[in-house]
Amino acid sequence: MKKPLAWCVGMAVFLVAGFQPATAEKGNADPSARIDALMADFWKDKGLQPRPPIDDATFVRRIYLDVAGRIPTAEEARKFLDDETPGKRPRLIDELLDSEGYVNHQYNWWADILRINSRQGGGQNVVPAYIEWVKASLRENKPYDVMVRELITADGNSDYDSGAVGYYYRDRGMPLDNMANTVRIFLGTRLECAQCHNHPFDKWTQMDFYHMAAFSYGVNVRNQSNLFSEVQREVQRDKEMSRQEKNDLRRAFQEIGRPLRNRPEVSYEPERLPQLPHDYQYEDAQPKEKIEAFTMFGDNPEVTSPGARLDEYAAWMTSPENPRFTKVIANRLWKRAMGLGLVEPVDEWMDDTAAVHPELLDFLEHQMVAMNYDVKGFLRMLFNTGVYQRESVADDLEDPTAFAFTGPVLRRMSAEQIWDSVVTLINPRPDEINWKQQKEIELREAGMDMLTEALNAKAPEELLADARRIAERQRGMQEELANLQKQQVKARQAKDQEKVRELARETNRIRTELRDQIYESVYRPAFRKANLQRVSLELPEGLGSVEMKPDMLDDNGRPNRELRRQLEEMEAKLIDLEMDELGITDPKERRGYAGFRRGTISNFARAANLPSPAPAGHFLQQFGQSDRETIENAETAASVTQALTLLNGPLFNSIKGSYTVVARAVEAAETPEAKIEAIYLSFLGRLPDDEERALLKGEFEARGEAFYQDLGYALMNAPEFLFVR
User: pTM to 2 decimals?
Assistant: First the structure.
């Protein structure tokens, strides 16, 4: 069968450049080659020449940064450069897509889009579970449409297995904002401008906004309160009880339930509908009128009952028939690989929006559907194209909508990529799953389950008796705390800071005594009545399991010091095994390496495993990490602070430490030339060229061993280190 001319041209470009065909994906025998054919026609029509193909050194560094979010180690770079077998590029792409590095890198991207804030108030339990849910979804390569449906229809509580409730928890109490964010993220449309008036630049009306808001307006996020609801209703109905007694019992129940206060539940109340604002000024409805659900485009779903409204909304949102859902994610992922979208901005589509290459965007949309929304498969297709494997374009992009993609865009690393690359220079296991963090989350959730089960085992009259005892203790505390507060005011006025601290310690002691009383008099008897024994959680391979008993919970319902100590002991065992693998036998060296590893686990973990956004002053914040207040608001512009951090900050001292990855690579090299190569591979993923070798040889002869550290310092501060080339 004769092949179409476009196919032949595309394959010629692809094969002449030395690229290996991609693994076939459902829907097209070779979708990567088809993309290259479309681009070849596109360049020919515009009279453009594509950028030259990149060499292996540029490829290995680029693909590590784009897939795993970090630079390769010297060992990883050398292994790839020395490999002379056919198909090594597709193999490396597959290897990285299946790595934990991919999970970390993709998580950082989604955390920015979804505005995941691990420091969110009241989110001590639900946000960690949400974070792990996102990571688990990426790890298992959950289809994109399934992931979005689970986010939009999330209900239940913050259990480890239903962490998607964090999506609504992020915008709790702000259903209108949540809907606007949902439409912007998944449909690429700025509907928020229509919340207060008809959109000034697009067709959307204020009525469109409220029609859309009606679908998810009934989602309700609140702290669990059903444990005491029955007995509290009885208290409120008791006509013989004074108002003061009722208030005292209410405060007592709040204190008893304090360990469970950060375990929110998400429910859907279908009868709740949004109301138009009081100053609604258009003629199609009256102010404060309740508005029914209606989609902004496409076929309006048939809602068989109010309770099915949210499910139908999610089904409409993620349908292949939705005119924007698939196109938007295809465009986002194209930008992920190439540095710029076929449509820019990626989240401001209008009726007259035109892609740089409409036929290509249509093909990408078709492929996403044919792949059943397999994000890894889609990225694999893009990374295996000749377009991706060309030299980057460094032109000033005054008009992004006119960019011809003759190669990917040259771009500075994100804050997370820079940090994670520094981590790679230091931490010998940068991509290791943070099992300790996972187990702490599981233990917190197990503890919550224990507390809930224990309180549910008590009859209402028992809970009321508990509340009366605690209320009596609280009344006795009030006078003590009020007196301490007065003394603190006087001490501050007298600027007696020591007295202020002493009074604060006394205040905390009194409150701690109350919490201890609650734990001993309310929860411990409840544990016995519920016959709670222990919870067993599996640890990483070779470490067995950890068992948590009810008495291993502190007064916040979290693992106590003893249980955390057990996890630290398990961590120490893993470090011992690591040293055995490395052949470190000298006791003094083992102590030094163990201290180094504990430090790297705490201080040099991947950005995805750190609290985010990072605190003020942290490297990630200095280099532009998103503050997670708005969607994708990270910054990559250079600053004086960044330059000073790299030049004068303490970071390089950590990189050059005795046990770091780069230090061990240099130490293992036997000649000055080999040591210089190890440094170049570590920082830049390539070997020095002939001119650089000649220059560096002279510098080494003049300066000796001290030169190695200076070379690493110079390369870390070179523009080549900071850019995705």
Answer: 0.89
